[in-house]
Every structure is written in C-alpha cells, then in structure tokens.
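Lab notebook, design round three. We kept the backbone fixed and only want residue identities now. Task for the bench partner: fill in a sequence for the structure below.
Input structure tokens:
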C-alpha cells in the first residue's frame, strides 16, 4: 500500500520552482527520512502532502485522497512543523482540549497517558516549556489525532542531543504501538539511521534517489583503484560520484551485480556516504575526469 504518491509534482513560487518533476511512491507502514540541503524542497513537499499548499503542476495523493480536500482527508494526516508550533498562552491541558475539539478521531486517553508518562505539567503554559517539552507536546497532538500519516518537518532541529534522542525514542514507540506511517525531514543523518527504514533524497527541487534503506546500502559500492576514466565502467554500474588523484580513482556506483574487475578494491558505504554523494552531485551521471589534489 502506498501512503503518498506523486506524479510530475511541482510547486512554483513566482519564478522559482521549489519542487519540480517529483515522482514518488512512499509505502505505508514505514518511517521515511526526507533529506537534502536547504532549499531542496523538503518543506514544500511536506506542506503539499498536508494540504497546506496546492501543486503548480502534477498530482499528489495521500492516504488515497487529495490533500486538504475535506474533513475526512484532513483527519488522515498529522503535521508537525519545524518550529513545533504550540500556543504559548495555552496550557498543556488546554492544548489537549483544543485537539479533542478539532479532530474527530482524537484519542483522549492516549493524549493524557502520554502527557503523564513524559512528565508534562497539564497546568503549565506552553510558553514556559523547554524546547524539548514543546516538541513532545506537538508530537503528542500529532499522534493523538490518530492519523494514518504523520508528517514531521525537522522536528528535532532545535533540541539538544538528549532531548533529541528521547523524542526519537518516543516517536518509534508510537509508530510501533499505533502503526502510523511517518515522513520526517532532517539534516541529521544519525537520527535518520536510528529511526528510518525508507529514504528520499531531494536536491535542487528534484528527487535524486528513493528506496528502502537496506536495499540502497546493498546496491551502492565504493570502488578504489588505479586512476581510470569512469566511462570505461560496465553499463550496469551507475556512477554516483567520482574523485581522482594523479594515480587513483575513487568511485561510488549503484549496481545490482557483482564487481568483477580485480583492479578495484570494493567497499561498502554507510548512509551518510550515500546521502552526501547524491547531495554533492545533483546531476547524477558520469562525471568528467577531473583531478582532486
């Protein structure tokens, strides 16, 4: 089952395309990491999925419907923006009452149990909470809505390492307990490695690579050997990045087959290597033979 489907999706702001030609099929039941440099289109994609923006081109379907098309569709999607928005003058308890009024599928027991478990004072105004506590309150509101899809836009960007880890642990517990699908944007690769099993890399407003993390890691290899022109590589070895010195070439390739050339030392890549390679080479192809000294 696909929780988010995009075909030729684009969003334009005046003359600038924030997202263009987006083709995506994000499976349900996964935690999908959405990663890319600033301005790549991550927030735009999430806001399109939440129904906060309309496409300039193409189509997007979320949980089987058009985002923002009506109350039933809105109830299927939860969204926590980057600044973990809460109302500073409202207490924690008032946030929960507001959530109950606005969301027909609201799980009041889940919300109150979670607030008690993480130790938030129901009578305390949100403006007096720490950044981590505000993030936990926003996550509680998103989960208690009982959405099919939870969209998180850099939810831990402003948190210290301990608060970030606690937030991610709670997120994983919520996913396991309630079966919600998650799409989470983040710049922090360590966080993606900890919680995500599916990946989307956006660069220059376009999708550069997408797939299950295990499969992506299994099909990318780092080749190191005597300097050579990458155009001589077999056709099934798609070059993602290449670096050359006077004597040596280091090439990251994507391939489903074995590396048979004995001249290459073959190494595995980790998630950070893979992401940075695609981010550094937005127009993935066969790089020219330049020299890095």
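Proposed sequence:
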């Amino acid at each position: 089952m696909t929780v988010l489907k995009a075909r030729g999706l684009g969003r334009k702001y005046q003359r600038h395309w924030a997202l263009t030609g987006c083709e995506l099929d994000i499976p349900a039941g996964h935690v999908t990491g959405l990663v890319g440099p600033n301005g790549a289109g991550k927030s735009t994609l999430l806001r399109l999925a939440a129904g906060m923006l309309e496409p300039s081109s193409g189509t997007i379907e979320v949980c089987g419907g058009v985002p923002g098309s009506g109350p039933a569709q809105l109830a299927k999607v939860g969204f926590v923006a980057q600044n973990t928005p809460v109302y500073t003058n409202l207490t924690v308890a008032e946030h929960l009452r507001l959530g109950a009024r606005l969301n027909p599928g609201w799980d009041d027991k889940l919300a109150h149990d979670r607030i008690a478990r993480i130790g938030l004072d129901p009578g305390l105004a949100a403006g007096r909470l720490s950044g981590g506590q505000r993030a936990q309150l926003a996550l509680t509101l998103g989960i208690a809505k009982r959405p099919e899809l939870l969209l998180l836009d850099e939810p831990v960007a402003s948190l210290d390492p301990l608060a970030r880890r606690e937030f991610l642990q709670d997120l994983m517990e919520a996913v396991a307990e309630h079966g919600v699908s998650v799409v989470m944007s983040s710049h922090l690769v360590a966080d993606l490695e900890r919680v995500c099993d599916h990946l989307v890399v956006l660069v220059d407003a376009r999708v550069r690579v997408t797939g299950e993390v295990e499969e992506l890691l299994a099909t990318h290899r780092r080749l190191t050997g005597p300097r050579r022109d990458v155009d001589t590589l077999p056709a099934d070895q798609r070059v993602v990045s290449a670096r050359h010195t006077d004597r040596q070439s280091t090439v990251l390739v994507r391939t489903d087959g074995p590396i048979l050339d004995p001249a290459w030392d073959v190494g595995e890549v980790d998630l950070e290597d893979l992401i940075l390679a695609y981010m550094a080479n937005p127009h993935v192809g066969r790089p020219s033979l330049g020299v890095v000294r």
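Keep this in mind before ordering anything: The chain is about 30% helix and 30% strand.
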